[in-house]
């Protein structure tokens, strides 16, 4: 991989980590169980995306 490609992957990883944190934070604040479950589901999807990006390196 080129330096530019590695920088792109690093940037993507940072964005995915940010979204995971936001979804988990929202889940911790939501009172509605359905919404909380959806926020956690989306956090899990971001975790899968993070793993996919990470495995590129």
Topology:
Layout lengths: L2 H27 L3 H22 L3
Description:
- 86% of the residues lie in helices and 0% in strands.
- By secondary structure, it is an all-alpha fold.
- The protein has one domain (3-54).
- The mean pLDDT is 94.
The average pLDDT is: 94
List how many beta strands DSSP finds.
0
Helical stretch tally: 2
Distance between the termini: 8 Å
Main beta-sheet strand count, sense and barrel state: none
Question: What's the number of structural domains?
Answer: 1
Encode the helix/strand succession as letters: HH
Q: Unreliable runs, pLDDT <50, ≥5 residues?
A: none
What does the overall shape look like? elongated
Task: Name the helicity range.
Answer: over 70%
Quaternary structure of the protein: single chain
Summarize the structure.
The protein has about 55 residues and is mainly alpha-helical.
Defining traits:
57 residues, mainly alpha, 2 helices, 86% helix, elongated
